[in-house]
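Here comes just one.
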Amino acid sequence: MAKSRTIILALLLLAGLAALIIFWLRPAPLESDSDSETETTTVAPEPEEVYTGPSGNQFLEEHGSPDHDLIHDMELMGRVMHNMTILFKNLDTRYVATNEQLSAFLTGENPGRLEYLDPDLPIFKDGVMTDRWGQPYMVHPLGTGSIEVRSIGADGIPYTDDDMRYHPAEGVVGNKSDPNQIPVWDQP
């Protein structure tokens, strides 16, 4: 029994000694010589310019542009109205029943003091949002937390054939007296 213990102890001692020799004799890592080797460096890509202004401004950059028409302007207004209802959940439209109130609400006079649109945008004239002809938009709260916005058109007379409106359920539509003749364009 003593002999087997001695053999086991000798084997363990030899295994430990072999491990030590292998560890000691392995080649040391080479030190890099910066003159002889090409250094590789990772260059981070330039960060993209991030827009930091009021979030709704991006929707109205093309509003009133001579490159586009009233339909395009109303689609842009539709995006603003749609995103406003997403940002301001449970919107009580009694407090945005007029263009003046809606304009003030969108430029920061709201419970969260969130400036969704910059009041210095060209769309604002005398504190109200205006169409491409400088006419104030007509605002119609729908009582469902959403708002219809109407441009009274180039003639400046409301409810004539050149009017255009954005309705949340219908998209951008023209103004005709016969509802069956209302042209409907793609909703933004």
